[in-house]
Amino acid sequence: MQGLMDDFGHGTKGFEEHLCSVCTKQGKTTPATSWCSVCDVVHCEGCLQMHNMMPLLCDHEVVHLSDHTKIMVKRRFMCQVHRDEKVKLFCKDCKQAICTICCSIKHRACKDVDTIESMTPLVKGQLTNKIEQLRINMAATNNNITQRKSTIQDVKSNSQTLKDQVMKTRDTVMRAIIRKEKQLLGDIDKATDKQLHELQADIQSQEIELQMYQQQYEFTANAVTSNCEMDMYAVYDSVGLTSPDNRDTDNRPAAGRVVLTHDLDKLSKAVDELQLGEVEVVHDVSDPESSPVLHHTIDCNEDGDGEDPLVRDVTVLTVDGIKVMVFADYKNKRLKTYYTSNFKSFHNQLLLSYGPWQIAKLSESQIAVSVPGRQEIVTVNVTPGPVLLSTIKTSKQYYALASLSPSQLAAGTGGQSHSVDILDMTGRILRSINTGLVEEPDNIHVTRKNNLIVSEGGVKSLMCVTSEGDAVFTYTPTGVRALTCPLGITTTSTGDILLVDYDSHKVIQLTQSGQFVRDVLTQQDGLEYPRGVCLDGDGLLYVTSARYVKVFKFCQR
Question: Which pLDDT belongs to residue 239?
């Protein structure tokens, strides 16, 4: 590389700009056109003819100066220290190409010196390997750059989505405040109307009393002014027996006053504590530097449950912008959904004919659920409450279930057939895939490459096969990492595999080729007898444990 820089780098002249070596010695400036690889001098056309006419020189290989590649191959490898000496040796101790003079002077103490001829194939091979490694590194780096650029777009898009969610939450809060405002204004109007009605009724009563007093006043005044004894005694007989009503009308109860009572300190505190949300950076479980933190725990026990729930599987959907968690409660034969909207939590459930086993996600609003006790697969629309769409009767008792494509399901039977059946959406078997060591699959997961990962609690192995049945890998660790009861499976955004091991109380992380990475969750994280597992779009990890679903987030260590 340094030789190329010396010959063709910035500030150097190419061979085509050299002057004929013979002519130069004669004081002439004739442009050279050729180079003799043996003499290592350049010639013009005239001097080349003389060169070729000499018997001792006519066999020399001459290269035209325009043929740079051939010149680079044929030119002599000369020592940088002893310019007139050709490099013929290679010191392996110093990893340096040297001439014989260098070897005798500077490398006398070196133990391993070989010839250039014998070393060249080895050096060329190493450089060829280096080229291949550089090519791989360039491709990987270019791929990383592409992924980072894509991630930048995802980050920007996610930022806008989060801002939209904040504004949506603000609007929800404002609507709640406006509802409170309307309620208070309505209460004021209602109280005011009641007060006005009471005052109007009292005025009408007062007006009637006033008319009665006026009539009595006029009747009595006429009798007195007439000086007629008969009229006076007639009036006296009718009104004189009762004493005049001298009640003090000012003692009537005062009309009520409508007032608005509010605690400004309490209101101020409520405003200060108002949370529209919390912004945090959630890391991916695939990041080996991340560690799990328990985010929250969901108790799946509901009114109407006859038994303590046993949640076998969990999945998370996003329906019209609402995150909906779907749980398969085996003991209570129910499919349950949980979600939060407008600061309220909603719990819904769908009663099935028998206990649900595994949930297959068909889309963000539809799922399929295996019901092995009745040899059924049901499809459910999540609205976000669960609504039964169809019941598919199957010829076998299928436990494990996954979506292979929009029109095909992968189902694991309990018939000890060492296979997974591929079904259409009517339950018809299209073909069967060999699962090797796994006889009766408990769980199936389909990867992004459409490979099937299959587990069985009674088999201490995890199998991965293609959709055609070709083996990809078998994970059968021994020693302290040996599997005890492998069940739930999911994959991360980078393709890593998360496997639930029931009896060891673990969630294990593997590479997509089946190599152990780490124990993501253990009993020390509060995990006991886990069964199902899934990840949502925000990187939260959901793990079922008896009647509970534990939700974990991942933070940088």
Answer: 66
Closest CA to 361 of 387, 381, 334: 381
Q: pTM of the prediction?
A: 0.61
- Which residues make Cβ contacts (< 8 Å) with residue 293, sequence separation at least 6? 552, 553, 554, 555
Confidence check: pLDDT of 136 > 50: yes
Residue 9: its pLDDT value, please?
Answer: 45
Superfamily of 298-556 according to CATH: TolB, C-terminal domain (2.120.10.30)
Where do the domains of the chain lie? 2-121, 122-241+257-272, 298-556
If we measure between CA atoms, which residue out of 492, 488, 446, 533 comes closest to residue 285?
492
> Token pair of 91, please?
């010191």
Tell me the pLDDT band of 64, cut-offs 50, 70 and 90.
confident
Does the 2-121 domain belong in CATH 3.30.160.60? yes
Assess contact for 509 and 520: CB atoms under 8 A.
yes
CA nearest to 329, candidates 552, 546, 527, 526: 546
* 327: enclosing H helix or E strand: strand 322-329
CA 283 to chain centre: 9
- Scored b (16 or more CB within 10 A) or e, 346-384 reads eebbbebeebbbbbbbbeebbbbbbbbbbbbbbbbbbeb
| Strands of the sheet with 398-405, listed across from one edge | 398-405, 408-413, 419-424, 429-434
List phi, psi (to 5°) of 121.
-60, -40
CA dihedral sign, ordered 141, 142, 143, 149: positive
Q: Give pLDDT tens digits for 265-324.
A: 777 777 777 777 676 666 778 888 888 999 999 999 998 899 999 999 999 999 988 899
Q: What's the rounded Cα separation, in Å, for the pair 543 and 527?
A: 8
Q: Give residue-wise pLDDT tens across range 12-24.
A: 444 445 789 899 9
What is the greatest pairwise CA distance in the chain? 184
* Rounded distance between C-alpha atoms, residue 96 and residue 76, angstroms: 17
Write out the two tokens for 329.
């409660």
Q: Which long-range contacts (CB under 8 A, 24 or more apart) does 12-17 make?
A: 14/65, 14/68, 15/42, 15/65, 15/68, 15/71, 16/65, 16/66
Angle, CA 200 vertex, CA 194 and CA 205 arms, to 5°: 125
User: Which pairs from 473-477 meet CB under 8 Å and 24+ separation?
Assistant: 473/513, 473/514, 474/436, 474/437, 474/514, 475/499, 475/510, 475/514, 476/437, 477/516
Least trusted range by pLDDT, from 343-352, 410-419, 480-489: 410-419
Q: Give the SS3 label for residue 434.
A: strand
